[in-house]
Automatic annotation (TrEMBL):
Upper lineage: Bacteria, Bacillati, Bacillota, Bacilli, Bacillales
SUPFAM superfamilies, per database record: ACT-like (SSF55021), Formate/glycerate dehydrogenase catalytic domain-like (SSF52283), NAD(P)-binding Rossmann-fold domains (SSF51735), Serine metabolism enzymes domain (SSF143548)
CDD domains: ACT_3PGDH-xct, PGDH_4
Listed PROSITE patterns: ACT, D_2_HYDROXYACID_DH_1, D_2_HYDROXYACID_DH_2, D_2_HYDROXYACID_DH_3
GO biological process annotation, one example: L-serine biosynthetic process
GO MF annotation: an example: phosphoglycerate dehydrogenase activity
Free-text function comment from the UniProt entry: Catalyzes the reversible oxidation of 3-phospho-D-glycerate to 3-phosphonooxypyruvate, the first step of the phosphorylated L-serine biosynthesis pathway. Also catalyzes the reversible oxidation of 2-hydroxyglutarate to 2-oxoglutarate.
Catalytic activity annotation: (2R)-3-phosphoglycerate + NAD(+) = 3-phosphooxypyruvate + NADH + H(+); (R)-2-hydroxyglutarate + NAD(+) = 2-oxoglutarate + NADH + H(+)
Protein name (record): D-3-phosphoglycerate dehydrogenase
Length: 527
């Protein structure tokens, strides 16, 4: 039974998948004290939070059984990602669940900013009829500058175009071709700043985006431009914005997020040209349910041994690449485990080579599986997809990834090479239509081996009787051979045999095999 701790209030409908799962026990305890939280997380397999719970290094270290932390929302500012990675804990969020909600709130703020709606309503409440004071501007033919062209930025752009606005977007990953396909203009950050009548930001808050819109950036904008931030507090430097609003350089601002929250007492909110809301971007019934549901499914998938769709601290497999990469996940793990079991010496490098159709995609998720399966043999089961790269780096092991057009006759070929202080060994595998995973080369020898079950790898001299002597000795130990593959480079030279047997090979049997005539090296492994 998997124990899932929910420490912040979540939509009951959103966590229904967890509540209805037969293999999951859900503990809902919002607003716990720090000591209570530490006590509960020590017994949990998964933790789900929103923005209230601070997932610190101390908390993660108390979660000895913790496999996943789910953030029911987009931002993960309240989670120590480095500590989660060090502890092998997957962190997931729900970037899609509040896309519509935040985009719609941005448009509401845009309209309110353009037409002074909150200020006009407030004046009516105070008994004034100030029609001339609150003359606004139209959106039609104005230019909306979008900084950050991810999910929300794209949706905002589509809605803005519905208002007949011109849209110019900047994003470090946005190409001219992608912008053209989305129906927007592509620009550098400076170009977007210079052309925008309204500027909206939709980036995450990271070191590169902290105070991205600062005094220098604002100076590059049109006089009388307007600013919006419904993304993360801190992207816009508030002191610089305050000065620009006071001077008239910026005509108005609409803010849903702030550098310090709650933003009670924020001097920006005292300015009449500022429209403010208390971080409501994701505050719709639908969004609250969506983010909880998305995280619930990811939590269940990870607890059941699967892969998260929205991991934050490990690369995910893009949806369009899943059909191509997913079948190779098991193969990559098997190849790493096979080679890691037979290599000798201290590990220096893990090299992974991809050829054929695999060169058309980003194979990093497969490399991560290889690294994990190799390191587990050296370090133990505390190594997983999350921390494998970190552990390799800490131990001075270099990871290299390379693509090649040479397929050696196969549609796809995945080759793993391990370099130690004693030797370099390699293994190559592929997927055969209708037959599944196959090892097709080992240390340069051509073979055809299914990478599963009880296997014996034997290096020997290619001499008459070598194979027979191995078979006879295994029979003496009551070990039945299921399959055998033999490879050689030269007649009478070095050769290899790989046997699949029906049961575990005891150490005594392995020792006897190693002393058989013409046998140079024997290694037993179980995949």
């Amino acid at each position: 039974m998997h124990r899932v701790l929910i420490s912040d209030p979540l939509s009951e409908d959103g966590i229904k998948p967890l509540l209805e799962a037969a293999d999951t026990e859900v503990i809902q305890k919002p607003s716990m004290s720090e000591d209570e939280l530490l006590e509960e997380v020590a017994k949990a397999d998964a933790l789900i939070v929103r923005s209230q719970t601070q997932v610190t290094k101390e908390l993660l270290e108390h979660g000895e059984n913790l496999k996943i932390v789910g953030r029911a929302g987009v931002g993960v500012d309240n989670i120590d990602l480095d500590a989660a990675t060090d502890n092998g804990v997957v962190v997931v969020n729900a970037p899609d669940g509040n896309t519509i909600s935040t985009a719609e709130h941005t448009m509401a703020m845009l309209m309110s900013l353009a037409r002074n709606i909150p200020q006009a309503y407030h004046s009516l409440q105070e008994g004034r009829w100030d029609r001339k004071k609150y003359v606004g501007v139209e959106l039609k033919n104005k230019t909306l500058g979008v900084v950050g062209f991810g999910r929300i930025g794209r949706v905002v752009s589509r809605r803005a175009k519905g208002h007949r606005m011109n849209v110019i977007a900047y994003d470090p990953f946005l190409t001219k071709e992608k912008a053209e396909k989305a129906g927007v203009d592509h620009g550098s950050l400076d170009e977007v700043l210079a052309q925008a009548d309204f500027l909206t930001v939709h980036t995450p808050l990271i070191d590169a985006t902290h105070h991205l819109i600062n005094k220098e950036a604002i100076a590059k904008m049109k006089d009388g431009a307007r600013l919006l931030n419904c993304a993360r507090g801190g992207i816009i430097e508030e002191e610089a914005l305050y000065e620009a609003l006071q001077s008239g350089k910026i005509a108005g601002a609409a803010l849903d997020v702030y550098e310090e929250e709650p933003a009670v007492g924020n001097k920006l909110l005292d300015l009449p040209q500022v429209v403010g809301t208390p971080h409501l971007g994701a505050s719709t019934i639908e969004a609250q349910e969506n983010v909880a549901t998305d995280v619930s499914y990811d939590v269940m998938e990870v607890l059941r041994g699967g892969n998260a769709k929205q991991p934050v601290n490990i690369p995910s497999i893009p949806e369009e690449m899943q059909d191509k990469l997913t079948p190779y996940i098991t193969l990559s793990e098997k190849l790493g485990a096979f080679l890691g079991s037979v290599v000798r010496g201290g590990l220096n490098n893990i090299n992974v080579y991809y050829s054929g159709e695999l060169t058309d995609v980003d194979p990093t998720p497969l490399t991560r599986k290889v690294v994990k399966s190799v390191l587990q043999l050296f370090v133990g089961n505390r190594v997983n997809d999350v921390n494998s790269y970190k552990i390799a780096k800490d131990k001075g092991i270099e990871i290299n990834e390379q693509k090649s057009t040479s397929t050696k006759g196969f549609t796809n070929l995945l080759t793993v090479e391990l370099e130690t202080d004693e030797e370099t060994r390699s293994i190559a595998g592929t997927l055969l239509n209708g037959l599944g995973a196959r090892v097709v080369r080992l240390d340069g020898y051509s073979v055809d081996v299914i990478p599963e079950g009880h296997l014996i790898s034997i290096h020997h001299k290619d001499q008459p009787g070598a194979i027979g002597r191995v078979g006879s000795l295994l029979a003496e130990h009551d070990v039945n051979i299921a399959t055998m593959q033999v490879g050689r480079t030269d007649i009478g030279g070095a050769a290899i045999m790989i046997l699949t047997v029906d049961k575990e090979v005891e150490p005594a049997c392995q020792e006897h095999l190693a002393h058989v005539q013409d046998i140079n090296r024997v290694q037993y492994l179980k995949l």
